[in-house]
Amino acid sequence: MRFRFILFFVGVAFAARAQLQVQNLTIEQQASPIGIATLQPRFSWQLSSDKRGVKQTAYEILVASSKAALEKNIGDVWSSGTVKSDNTLFVHFSGSSLQVNRYYYVKVKVITNKGEEAWSKPVFFTVGLVKQSEWKAKWIGHDGGFGWDSITQWSRLSARYFRKEFPVAKKIKKAFVNIVGLGMYSLLINGKKIGDAVLTPAPTDYRKTVLSNTYDVTEHITTGNNAVGVVLGNGRFFTMRQNYKPYKINNFGFPKLLFQLDIIYEDGTNETIVSDQSWKFTADGPIRTNNEYDGEEYDATKELGAWSSVNYDAAKWIQPQLVAAPAGQVRPQPNPSMKVMEKIQPKSINRLRDGIYILDMGQNFAGWLQIKVNGKKGDKVKMRFAESLQPDGALYVANLRDAKVTDMYTLNGGGEEVWHPQFVYHGFRYVEISGWPGTPDVSDFEGQLVYDQMQTAGQLTTSNATINQVVKNAWWGIASNYKGMPVDCPQRNERQPWLGDRAQGAYGESFLFNNAAFYAKWLDDIEAAQTAAGAIPDVAPAFWNYYSDNVTWPGTYILVAEMLRQQFDDTQSIIKHYPSMKKWMLYMKNRYMKDFIVTKDKYGDWCVPPEDLKMIRSQDSTRTTKGALLATAYYYRLLGLMQNFAAIAGHPSDGAEYARLKENIRTAFNKKFFRADSNQYDNGTVTANLLPWYFGMVPEDKKQAVFTNIIKKLNADKMHISTGVIGTQWLMRGLTQNGRSDAAYTLASNKTYPSWGYMVENGATTIWELWNGNTANPQMNSQNHIMLLGDLMIWLFEDLAGIKSKAQGFKEIEMKPAFRNDENISAAYKSVRGEIVSNWTQENGKLKWTITIPANTVARIYVPAKSRKEVKESGRMIDEKNAVKFITMSGGDAIFEMGSGIYHFTN
User: Fold this and answer.
1) Distance CA 198, CA 339 (A)
2) Whole-number Cα distances in Å, 791 to 28, 221, 356
3) Alpha-carbon gap, residue 727 to 749, rounded angstroms
4) pLDDT single digits (tens) 691-711
5) Which residue intervals define the domain Bacterial alpha-L-rhamnosidase N-terminal in the entry (predicted)?
6) Is residue 838 located within the same domain as residue 788?
7) Number of domains into which the chain is organized
8) What sections of 764-850 are H helices per DSSP?
9) Is the same domain home to 650 and 768?
């Protein structure tokens, strides 16, 4: 299997006055700050310059075995030579074979059309244990529970502690740890935690894949005796509801460890310390249970002392078992791990009744609560978590189903004690505190937001307070649900990676987060979950056995791959997954297509706003869309993407077949669903008309009439949303593309039910699962979901702010904002090629628009004007001196093209 990874080069290695910079280094799909998951890396970088119209004309990449060689511009591992190209993304390494447990040093030189050149700052990496043969360690664990554990539906399994002492007699040059700790682990060497990652490794279907992490631990190993300690938590490996509904919930076994420490000495010799039966093990430690749904219990009176340091008395510890390896193949983790990304100070704490207090964090989020407490030995502090309160101020937990969401801390009594859980997370805003010694204060608590390490990529504010709060709510909701995989919700007894939630959601999220590595990893999870026959589940990794064989949920596999291509110029994911995608398309066609209509659907237009605020789902047939219409329209859309994918993957004959099938489906679809007497599809819901209109299935002479019916339906609903998860994914862009950005803006800024603003008006700080999430039956009303965002984030950045990729990875940028009078927008997006900025205000028809275009790109902008002469840039008429090229007048816009730089337009 071939793994992907990119490097973005950060920093500059030239004088401060230099105008050209080669910058922004990251390592995509890395297992740790230094480890990569492939022997065939690909390099990428960005340019920055204060000149206009800057383009790269050539580059040179050097990979060296030492810093000294690189400083002398010697690429003894690989030198690309001077390559005449403007490409800055995914340049393949073509040097000699890379080896594990050694560093490689890289830099790139860029030459531009302005006669400038600059080197990047050197960066380094090492390679994880990519080959199975490189692992010398043995799997250890204990296949069973202990007297204090409970292996039932309400599983309680304590954490497992493993330790090993070993001598080091010689001077160390380098030391690397590769580790797999299932379900989760914490690594310590000589009493110190290694790294700042949490909840590692990322979850997978352990029957298919298990992920390792790599750490450089050189500075932690000393001459003389050393000790390593590993704590194992349960995670998704030992399931939260053990042996409960085995037809639905997959079990994987008891926690287990694979550990390998490779030491390279200064004299050139090597030594390897591995997990085996020479280690010591106990489960009778302070973490008495850790269950993602139910919480973590920590008894500080059971603390083990300096158990991960040398000379510890482990006489009462036992020998671990050699256990069977999980069925999945071990490979380096391809994406950064989770960590504490934000810290949140509570808003207030209030006494509910004697001994019970309610802590308000002021924000719904996912992570945990850190406490500082001082009391007697044996005092027990209990923390229960919830998203909202009942009218009497008590926790509202009915919507959490049977998740107990409770942490317990038993004090040791040795002064101030600071604690937070290690192997669970909670989705919450409120915490019920009981058993606190004395009176708690807000200063005793800190919320810690946990999600996958990734950059916040986009920021957007408007002059509309409701839209601004919705964007903020979206950020918190998306971050909360990034947990090594995209989960639906972080609080109740579900937390599953549903595909349908991310069909267009991943695309919108990409404007707020640099989620490329995260979703590339998820595509691997989806492929791993595919059956031999070709079926793709609704949930991947397949922790639940949900293979319902619909189109709209599994089709996310293809839609996310398209997002990675468009937003990040990632075509390798398409090439890698094309065979699996094709297999699924054929599977659905052969099983469920009859007379070119796909007959199978499971969920419909999920979560249409119901007619009664207490209902979860609408029962009114005039508000629901037929499953066959949804499935067939989506299959048609996916065929169009597969045509492009076939070309990218080198299968042109497949593309021709997809084109033929598309035409047959289009004909059959219109024959079956189009109502010529009313110019609508089927029963005329917004979704029923919108999908064929947006997907290009409507006959050309009927397009305007069908769109008119969409607007009529919106007007009948008083310009409020009537679509569910499926329709809302295309709604805002569909309206705007037919000239009704005003209607889209109304939907975005509404404050009454059903709308995103209605959530804000009712106190939401994230996005709800239901449009009526404050009143619906608690059976299904998570207050931290993102699936109802639809294409709102896409519309805000692409259509309202005007930041849109027209050639994959923003090589070409289209800036055509939906300008509104008496409105202002400030938006910035850190694209894969550099930051794009669009700030505009319009008052009394007069526009002021500031734009930043990154180097090595071209932007085409649309300025409202009657003629080109009305448009000025930096106060001057536009000519060649501005580095702005006039293209044409079209539809009331003057269209211009320019390269990189900062521009100020007025009309």
Assistant:
1) 5
2) 26, 50, 42
3) 18
4) 999 999 999 999 999 999 999
5) 170-342
6) no
7) 5
8) 792-795
9) yes
Exposed, middle or buried: residue 325 (CB in 10 Å: 0-12, 13-18, 19+)? middle
Residue 907 is predicted with a pLDDT of 94
CB 119 within 8 A of CB 9: no
Name the residue with tokens 């193949």.
329
Of all residues in the chain, the percent with pLDDT exceeding 90 is: 90
Last residue of a domain, one of 785, 801, 817: 801
* Domain-embedded: residue 8: no
- 472: pLDDT confidence band, cut at 50, 70 and 90? very high
Residue 5, in any domain of the structure: no
Vertex 721: Cα angle to 715 and 722 (nearest 5): 90
Helices 465-480 & 741-749 angle (0-180, nearest 10): 70
Task: Work out the average pLDDT over 850-867.
Answer: 97
Same domain, 414 and 476: no
Tell me which residue of 809, 798, 272 sits closest to 571, measured CA to CA.
809
Q: Which residues contact 392 (CB under 8 A, 6 or more apart)?
A: none
For residue 871, the enclosing domain spans 804-906
CATH of the domain at 881: 2.60.420.10
pLDDT higher than 90, residue 4: no
DSSP 97: P
Dihedral pair phi/psi, residue 695, rounded to 5°: -85, 0
**H, E, C per residue of 431-489:** EEEECCCCCCCHHHEEEEEEEECCCECEEEEECCHHHHHHHHHHHHHHHHCECCCECCC
Residue 293 domain flag: no
Distances (CA, A) of 419 to 308, 371, 372, 435: 18, 5, 7, 15
Cβ–Cβ < 8 Å for 233, 157: no
* Same structural domain, 618 and 767: yes
pLDDT at res. 270: 95
- Alpha-carbon distance of 445 to 600, in angstroms, equals 50
For residue 348, being part of any structural domain is answered with no
Final residue of a structural domain among 127, 161, 196: 127
Q: Based on the domain organization, do 376 and 419 belong to the same domain?
A: yes
